[in-house]
Amino acid sequence: MTDCGMCETPIEHGYLCPGCTRALADRLQRMPHLYTALGAFLAPTTTREPGGGRTGRAEAPLPVSEPVLNLRGPGGIVGILEDWRAALHHARRWHPPTPAVGIPNRVALAAGALLHSVDWISTCWPEAGDLAHEIRNLDSDIASIIGTRERPTGLRLGPCPAEHADGTLCGAILRLPPGGQLVTCQWCTTTYPPATWAQLKELIDYDQAAA
Question: Which of 27, 70, 80, 195 has an alpha carbon 20 to 30 Å from 201's alpha carbon atom?
C-alpha cells in the first residue's frame, strides 16, 4: 500500500490513483487545443476609465501579452512537455525523441507521446506524481488566462455544461462569434453545432438555476 503521488490517496500499487491518472490524461489530451486557444489572447487587455478613456501607462505597452507569449514560446508549454517526454524516453531506455517542426506540432507530438504512455507512467514511473503536478500547474496557468478574460465580441451564452472525467463541470463562458455557426468552448474545446443549441440552452439554464 502506498499513496498517490498527486492526491495522496492510498493505492495498492503504482504511483497515481485512477482518478489522477484520468485527470492527467485529460490535461495532456487538451494541451494542443489550449496552446491554440491561447493565440486568441496574445493581444494585451486594456482597461477603461468611467468616462470611457483608456487608463494611462507609465511605459509603452507591450505589443503582445507577456504571460501568453511565455506560455506559447520555447520555454513554455512546449518546453515542459518535451522535457518530460525526454525524461520518459530515458526512463524507458528508448532512443531520445526527435521533435517535430514548428511549436504547435511539437506540442501535439510531446503531449501525445506522454498520453500514449500514461498507463505505464501511473503504474511504473516514480516521477509520475511530479509530472502530474507540473501538468496540472501548467493547465491552471492557461486557465487563469483563458478562463478569466472574456472575448470582446460575440454573443454571451453562459457557462459551458461539459462534464470532465472527474464529474466536475467545465463552467467556462461560451460565446457565439458574430456570424458563427459553431459554439466552441475555449477552455475544454467541446463543440456545440446548431442542432444541439436547444439542448445546450436547457443545460445552461439548469446549471445556473442549481448554482
Answer: 27
